[in-house]
Amino acid sequence: MSEPKPRHAVFLDRDGTIAEEVGYLNHLSRFQVYPFSAGAIRRLNDAGLPVVVVTNQSGVGRGFFPDELVHRVHERMIAELAAGGARVDAIYYCPHSTADDCACRKPRPGMMVRAAREHRLAVRGSWVVGDRYGDMEMAHATGCRSILVLSGYGRGEYEWHRGNWKRQPSHVAENLEAAVEIILKESR
Q1: Of 13, 70, 140, 156, which sits 20 to 30 A from 104 (CA to CA)?
Q2: pLDDT digits (tens, 9 = 90+) for 35-46
Q3: How many CA atoms lie within 13 A of 92 on its CB side?
Q4: Which residues is 90 bridged to in the sheet?
């Protein structure tokens, strides 16, 4: 028997995409999932698309908050999404600062490559959804389709900086809910 073919996935940024962007999330009480996130992710689940969260959390490496807080935030996110009938297949985060020059910090694709290896995913042709141009750069570097959401930092990034971008996102959407609509339409 042959191995199953790797599946395309949807790689989601966390802050500004699934949950409100608050800068360095240094306390659990500041974490707020957007009200539309569970429904949007549930639609991806129903379509059979793996959902993987990839997030930079340099506050750990900078000493702003402990690694334990990131785990507690992810536990809360999983619980809140589950209450809305949604699930994520995996979560990867980079605790390093830019100065660490690691392979996992977005826009580098280390988290995606690891997820692909561990979950038999095809990176090329998958989707990346995020609110920062670094998310789009990661998508471009790996052959993914990209959607910049205007939630979080997205609107400011798009309005003030898009003229300087080497390459534009595949799509721009108001938020994760609208991004999922694009993904599902193009996946039919």
Answers
A1: 156
A2: 999 999 999 999
A3: 20
A4: 52
Could you confirm whether 46 is annotated as catalytic?
A: no
Domains of the chain, with CATH numbers? 7-187 (3.40.50.1000)
DSSP 30: G
- Written as six digits, the tokens of 136 are 């789009």
Burial label for 164, CB within 10 Å (0-12, 13-18, 19+), is exposed
CB atoms < 10 A from the CB of 115, how many? 24
User: Are the CB atoms for 18 and 129 separated by under 8 Å?
Assistant: no
- The amino acid at residue 105 is R
Residues 6 or more apart whose Cβ sits within 8 Å of residue 77: 14, 18, 19, 31, 33, 53, 88, 91
What digits encode the pLDDT tens for the residues 146-176? 999 999 999 999 999 999 999 999 999 999 9
Task: Please report which residue ranges of 50-153 form alpha helices under DSSP H.
Answer: 58-61, 67-83, 110-119, 133-142
Prediction pTM value: 0.97
What is the DSSP code (8-state) at residue 5? P
Look-up: residue for tokens 């395309």? 8
- Catalytic residue of the set 13, 46, 100, 131: 13
